[in-house]
């Protein structure tokens, strides 16, 4: 089959990470605010951006990324000053 005849639905057959998170994550219970969705059934824009930015590796290397970030903070001597007591 030539590329021009490819199934146009093939690209959408694999949902994005954001779509998978929206599908798999439980909704907040009655009386609780849903941090992922707000008042709608779909992810809030900032969460869509975050999950899509994780790329194809998805959540599988999030722990490694966190460790690398902590190492960079330690190695570069980044500190913060607490303004409130």
Could you provide a short overview of the structure?
With 85 residues, the chain is an all-alpha fold.
Description:
The chain has 85 residues and is an all-alpha fold. α2 crosses α3. The protein has helices spanning 10-13, 17-24, 45-53, 62-76. The chain has four helices and no strands. The radius of gyration is 19 Å and the shape is flat. The model is unreliable at 1-12 (pLDDT under 50).
Poorly predicted ranges: 1-12
What class, by secondary structure content? mainly alpha
**Gyration radius, to the nearest Å?**
19 Å
Q: How many helix segments?
A: 4
Helix fraction bin = 40-55%
Main sheet summary: none
List how many beta strands DSSP finds. 0
Instruction: Give the amount of beta strand, in percent.
Output: under 5%
Averaging pLDDT over every residue, what do you get?
78
Secondary-structure element string: HHHH
**Ends distance:** 68 Å
Shape designation:
flat
Q: How are the secondary structure elements laid out?
A:
Layout: H1 10-13, H2 17-24, H3 45-53, H4 62-76
Helix pairs in contact: 2-3
């Amino acid at each position: 089959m030539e590329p021009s005849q490819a199934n146009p639905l093939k690209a959408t057959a694999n949902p994005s990470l954001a779509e998978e998170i929206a599908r798999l994550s439980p909704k907040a219970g009655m009386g609780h605010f849903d941090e992922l969705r707000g008042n709608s059934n779909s992810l809030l824009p900032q969460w869509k951006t975050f999950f899509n930015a994780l790329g194809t590796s998805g959540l599988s290397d999030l722990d490694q990324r966190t460790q690398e970030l902590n190492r960079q903070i330690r190695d570069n001597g980044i500190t913060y000053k607490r303004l409130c007591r």
